[in-house]
Amino acid sequence: MSEGIAHNWQLGFQAAASPVMERIDGFHDFLLVVITCICVFVLALLAYCVVRFRESANPTPSTTSHNNVLEVVWIVIPILILAVIALPSLRLHYLEVEIPPADLTIKAIGHQWYWEYEYPDHGNFGFDALMVEDEDLQPGQPRLLATDAPVVVPVNATVRVLVTASDVLHSWAVPALGVKMDAVPGRLNETWFQANRTGIFYGQCSELCGVRHAFMPIEIHVVEQGDFERWIRQQQQQAGIDPAREDAS
User: Fold this and answer.
1) Computed over its alpha carbons, how large is the radius of gyration of the chain?
2) Which end of the chain is more exposed for a tag (fewer CB within 10 A), N or C?
3) Helix, strand, or coil here: 129?
4) For 150-205, how does the pLDDT look when each residue is reduced to its tens digit (9 = 90+)?
């Protein structure tokens, strides 16, 4: 089981566990190359100007005030750079907002200060997910991130997440899955993810929502399809839902 969590002295993003996060990671690396090239070019240009046009080498400075070719170049090149950045950026944005046909729908409701979840495709059972306090942590549970009732989804399934809030603005975010969506009272936003490996993935509310904003974690368990179906049956039994009736409907 892989674990989606930040580690001490980590550089870069958490290891991608979804197609969206893989694209975000690749786009980030691409931008890093572009920015590095720009910085190196500007640094080299400044160094050249310092050496070439120092006072000792130019006792009589040039009186040139305009250069049409140079002015066109420094306008066109930034436009071309932005165009090169814009194309993959728009493709990534489309991938994030265009939700494919979903295998499963989950509703996440933000409260001060915990998350409530509903599974409308499986009898609409629901549960609250509260942070595990320090004194109740079990071995292997990360502090401030573990919850008493994790979200469970099957691996390689397209999961649509409906996000809203009951009181103030919240934000449902899981870095390893490349998902972040604001929870707005009175509004239903939607996002999606597709975990491509099993494991436990953690996130937090990413909108300043009050005094316990830092104690509103998200815990997602990505499991095999058979394990997911067994978990669904257990949840339905606890909620008093007849699985046979739900399957028939």
Assistant:
1) 25
2) C
3) strand
4) 999 999 999 999 999 999 999 999 999 999 999 999 999 999 999 999 999 999 99
Q: Using alpha carbons, select from 174, 131, 170 the residue that is nearest to residue 149.
A: 131
Give CA–CA dist 122/124, Å, rounded. 6
**Hey, what amino acid is at 25?**
D
Do the beta carbons of residue 147 and residue 219 sit within 8 Å? Answer: yes
What is the C-alpha separation between 218 and 146, in angstroms, rounded? 7
Segment 2-17, tens digit of pLDDT: 578 888 888 889 999 9
Which tens digit of pLDDT belongs to each residue from 20-79? 999 999 999 999 999 999 999 999 999 998 998 888 888 887 777 788 888 899 899 999
Q: Are 118 and 124 in contact (CB under 8 A)?
A: yes
Token readout for 53 is: 């046009």
Q: How far apart are CA 240 and CA 222, in angstroms?
A: 25
Dist. CA 221–CA 58, nearest whole Å? 68
Is the whole model's pTM more than 0.70, yes or no?
yes
The position carrying tokens 């509004």 is 187
Least Cα distance to 20 among 96, 75, 116 occurs for: 96
Amino acid 2: pLDDT = 53
Residue with tokens 């990534």: 92
Contact by Cβ (8 Å): 202, 14? no
As given in the structure block, the two tokens for residue 58 are 């130019």
Q: What are phi and psi of 95, to 5 degrees?
A: -60, -35
Residues 198, 154 contacting (CB under 8 angstroms): no
Q: At what angle do helices 19-52 and 68-97 cross, to 10 degrees?
A: 170
